[in-house]
């Protein structure tokens, strides 16, 4: 018997999770379509004027990002919890925090990354100036992983409960507020041609904090849920 | 009539029949589309207001009409499949969805391209345009739902329900221009008191619409044929056919 | 003997659930080629005890020792040499049995690859090896979970009602597998309501009430 | 309750529901569900003050104030009933010309002048070659009606 | 044996669902908190100017309502499906469509009604004039049940699937768009002191349509999911 | 005989799953005091057949008749006189067994209230009657599901592996309950891997392969 290294095990889990996420080609489109649909809702509900849309554009992109990440959260650990896979992972020789981190990364790759890539397109639809594009992408690239990491703690805490959906949102959304504020602020500043390093640095700081402490908290929460 | 219906619904019979019909539809489509397109783009006079810009009508209108027609066709097939538990009808519905989505996309795209010079905007949140966009989302939802269910039988029935629920959107697309003061023009061809378009402009348009219909017939039958083959892969007639080749 | 020396001890284990005491001051010792037969009526606490022994649930008091080290201190070593099969199968419904097995062994053991094939055959899963697990029958799922146990080269098997949902042949097969494992020097902890005919190894009874 | 009664009850409830829905639907269509207001409605004071809305109508021939070198334009809109003066600074769509149907989006000021921020040309459902339009104009002395 | 009438059975189910929904007091707050958080997000993400907020206010309230209703949808039938209760309901002598309707009503009472009640508060936060309050409440009262009813079809269609989250949203959101448009329009009109009977009538029409046909579609979908 | 005359017939039932034919042209007839013993190895299609008979799954061809009327046409009558217990228990984890039972009978039978008490006692659920079902043991959950069957005054019981997770006493109890039901003129359809000792009624065997 030769226990696989953390990297090997992590890679296997990553591949599995992405494969499960995209088992059918059609599903590749889901987060994208969801994001687009949510973005469509705003011009429908408010009035579709260029100026207004420009003003609320960054906010909408961020809200859509947050929501589509929260919406997918419920399934992050729930299914592994329900079918016993989580038990097996907790009993494997790999550190649970590492496995959960990998799962979170996979979740981000499936639900967050498409959004980062698609953001410029939505920005176009909201008539945001081209120079704000890179900042929007950068802020989303720094912010959405943090959303997933924070979300993963919430998902772990509620994994043992039946109806987690709204509860996760309740735990996660308040914690995600700062990210939203600074993310949208960065894009706003870029639209006015101002310096954006401040908010971006802050987003990076939060991301690394979440990256190093999040999985440990999540692992502890999962062990409690399994008890 | 009833026996004909039954006979048609038997997969091997349908398979053979569609095999002979596809070329007919295909050639008919070509024979209609090519001359109509030529007539529309070169022979028809320019419009008194829009000049040559109006010629995009020859793609926009057929694809827009087909987007609605295909949806109704698909929903009807789905309903038949649900009520009489006829698998072939489900196969037809499945085969139609991507085609309908493509027509919808084409209508949206050509509409936008047309809208930019004529209206001065690519897009407005007008009733007709929004409803057509919802139609696209419905097609996508239909395909997404199918993709998410691995058992064909269940996927058939679940997506059929969705298709039927979505039917409410079709009259909204069609009548939006009469119900609301929309930016989109009202109906030209189906206008009360006859079409308000002269024959030399209209005939190529009718030709294009019929051509698109035949094209739809050919493509959908091809897709249904393949779908039937996949679904019946374990049945005797398919195995016989494969071995005899 | 292909499996190295090892021992599992429980000392002074107690656990309450609500106002109910499931077990109190429970102790046992298990070494190679021994199996612990946990028995007791419905709701007597077998599953709970097995989860405690696997390290999933914390006992109220007492400790479990693997090779004389507390399992809470040596998780890595213990989890490497132990495999647990509970009421839940731990199979992903979207993946087929083979993919499921392969995934589990990518986390546990680099060299398990070759043994997967053998396990699938042994447990009679050839026919459904490429069906997604969600469409398997209850017994087939149980067999896939058992295949996971078989593939592992773990010293200690902890099996909670391994016979549930299995047909007669399946039950005989499990008895055979456990016997073989014990003969090779392995250990097992089994909770079951059925009589068990296990020839290899020594039975250590533990009755909960 | 027997099976039959149960089924009847459901059918009745569903039909009643659809009926009520139709009633509300019909009532809704008698009300204001517009994408834009007509000049007549504007004159009757229907649209809100100090908020943006859309006006649609035909550009009255001869009213397009064309100061060369300047982007700003003023013109009148009509629905063959009332008239509204529209002020617009910006690029007009190709199809904008006298007699054409357009939709303007903006605010009404205190003097009843409509300050548009966006002008869209609305094309009607009539298609014809230029010569025909010309001869029609000669016969009727006007553009084909909207 | 005496089969209970539809009303008795429906009442029992309603009581059970509400009890389960509120079994933990904390969860009573969930949809509300979610709604509030989404609504708060905008002033945070965009700039908190009075005029802008006034303009987007009705739209935001509606989008928040729609999203919080979609978010809660996943749990509508999922838990009954997973533990076999749905099987038992499908096999009870009560019409399945009726039971599903009752479940949807319970869902609305837990997730939609609090939102209707809370809306005036949010309207305040967006500086909406007081005279728009009653219309906003009326439009939400007519619109949110429809959202739940449409959502229930989507939830039924995806009930048997593992990862329904994003798919439900994709199925449900397009169909909900008209409600969003007319709901926001009504509030908009009311803000200008205009006649709102048109959109309200339309909302009522859609609600009754959804009320009479929605449960039938949902029941058919559930039977398919159980197959 | 306290249960009125009734009959269940399956005619020409066929079902494929993927490329696999689970059963083809299957027929049987069952009347009062008879029980259908569905047997077969793991994955032979017992569960699927039972779901077809309950009306949950559509057969590819063939029909099921209750009192000579197709069940798809007389759902109300059939479901009133039939009760099904599958692999899933149909208990809400947040409610205790008593609340669960009460809820089910609010949908099925106005008069079941008194029988709930008896059923809880009979199945030995007194100790856990007020625990939320999620913290019950596997066997206790099974017993609660059986209590639901017992409370119903349904003519036809359809039980899929009723013995799973039960201890020895529990299994004997189920045999006793089924026997009593058959003696009173009821019917039952049972799928199980265990031998069954059912004294009352006549056994109608049905072997799937
Ligand atoms: C994105 C923008 C557009 C969309 C989504 C769109 C959509 C549609 C749809 C769905 C129809 C079919 C209606 C039916 O069969 O009931 C249609 C028809 C039509 N559209 Fe568009 N359209 C767009 C832009 C335009 C533009 C810019 C023009 C020209 C100014 C135009 C001219 C027409 C005409 C002439 C018809 C045929 C009407 C008839 O006779 O029935 N469309 N459009
Ligand atoms: N909060 C609580 N209060 C009192 N008793 C509890 C509580 N939670 C769980 N229990 C009891 O603890 C026991 C847990 O038993 P466990 O699942 O370990 O039984 P088991 O021996 O595996 O039974 P089975 O043979 O049915 O699988 C049950 O009897 C349950 O009723
Ligand atoms: N798509 C498919 N293609 C091929 N076979 C399938 C498919 N879906 C399900 N099956 C098979 O159908 C059978 C379903 O069996 P079912 O669950 O009815 O068995 P069972 O007799 O209840 O078994 P058990 O005793 O294990 O509970 C399984 O053998 C499964 O492998
Ligand atoms: Mg147990
Ligand atoms: Mg089974």
In short:
The complex is a heterohexamer, with two copies of chain A (227 residues), one copy of chain B (245 residues), two copies of chain C (209 residues) and one copy of chain D (146 residues). Chain A is an all-alpha fold.
How does the major sheet of chain A shape up? none
Which series of helices and strands of chain A comes N to C?
HHHHHHHH
Give the biggest beta sheet of chain D: 5 strands, mixed, barrel
Strand content of chain D: 25-35%
Widest sheet, order of strands of chain D: 1-2-3-5-4
Mean pLDDT of chain A, nearest integer?
A: 79
Distance between the termini of chain A: 28 Å
CATH architecture descriptor name of the largest domain in chain D: Beta Barrel
Question: Helix/strand-derived class of chain D?
Answer: alpha+beta
Beta-strand percentage of chain A?
Answer: under 5%
Q: Approximately how much helix is present in the residues of chain A?
A: over 70%
Computed over alpha carbons, the radius of gyration of chain A is 18 Å
> Ions, cofactors, ligands: which are bound?
protoporphyrin IX containing FE, adenosine-5'-triphosphate, magnesium ion
Uncertain residue segments of chain A: none
Give the mean pLDDT of chain D. Answer: 77
Layout of helices and strands:
The complex is a heterohexamer, with two copies of chain A (227 residues), one copy of chain B (245 residues), two copies of chain C (209 residues) and one copy of chain D (146 residues).
Chain A: H1 6-21, H2 25-45, H3 50-82, H4 85-90, H5 96-125, H6 133-158, H7 165-191, H8 197-226
Helix pairs in contact in A: 1-5, 2-3, 2-5, 3-5, 3-6, 3-7, 5-6, 5-8, 6-7, 6-8, 7-8
Chain B: H1 2-8, H2 11-43, H3 57-83, H4 87-119, H5 127-148, H6 152-166, H7 169-179, H8 199-231, H9 236-244
Helix pairs in contact in B: 2-8, 3-4, 3-6, 3-8, 4-5, 4-6, 4-8, 5-6, 5-7
Chain C: E1 7-17, E2 20-31, E3 34-39, H1 46-54, E4 61-66, E5 69-70, H2 75-81, E6 82-85, H3 97-108, H4 113-122, H5 138-151, E7 156-160, H6 168-183, E8 187-191, E9 202-207
Parallel strand pairs in C: 3-8, 3-9, 6-7, 7-8
Antiparallel strand pairs in C: 1-2, 1-4, 4-5
Helix pairs in contact in C: 3-4, 3-5, 4-5
The structure holds protoporphyrin IX containing FE, adenosine-5'-triphosphate (ATP) (2 copies) and magnesium ion (2 copies).
